[in-house]
Design brief:
This protein is an alpha+beta fold. It contains eight helices and 18 strands.
Length: 296
Amino acid sequence: MMYPFMTLNDDTEITHSEMKIDGTVKVYIETPNDTGGFHHATCWLPEYKWQDIKGYSNLEIAYFKNYIASVSHIIMELSRTGGFNALYEKASPDLESLKNYQIDNPKYPTRIAQTELSKEHSYTTQDIDALPEGKRAELINGQIYNMVSPNYIHQHLVMELSGTIHEYIRNNHNDSQVLPTPLAVRLNADDKTYVEPDISVLCDSKKISERGIEGAPDFIIEIVSPATQKRDYGIKLFKYRNAGVREYWIVNPSKEIVNVFCFENEEENNNLYSFEEDIPVGIYPDFSINIHELLK
């Protein structure tokens, strides 16, 4: 039996099996294509063994690999207990009480993301504007994601990376601007999405308004935390790509790695770097950043 786990914006369905006797779990991904068929792929947990991949590009598979890795602990736990349906049956029918559901096993401390548990209501930027003073949240496809206070390493990375990029821009007489959080970015021409990337680099000053940035920045950096990793590796990757972001970095301080996604060429690519490597900035061909050196 397969249990539903997630439906993405392009109608991709992600499902998972019960945990088998040998401790493995099958994760199946399926996306309708333009010819009436389906692209699909299978991942076996906990080994992360991928097989039967059909129709997906390398970039799409890289996205799915990052996404499944970020939520595998939730899938593994749900596979033991009957999936989300069993969770709904065991918990209160009041969805508000499910948003902060904590998986009992201490090995899996991550909270189940609000997006799976509160699709019954769609919010707009008016709801974001009406938040109490000092409360921050992001809005993606009509769903609100509360933001928590960042820790020291997060802020240290934001400051160092922003400063390094700013220095490059100033020394090269570039018209770009580097704008760290908190700053509103309205990716689309609608009222359903409002994000606050940790670092936005903008090459077109016409996109700046009193409200923040109107449209897609050229370069976005997100610093991963336990509270944001599912969003950073998942829905934001698709959202930034589709909105026209040219380059997207996901900086993971706990693993000291950086995923770099370059979207502007026909041959989109995804590269993985360690903090100790010189990481090339795609939108500036003569510029690279070594995060290990920044943090000394």
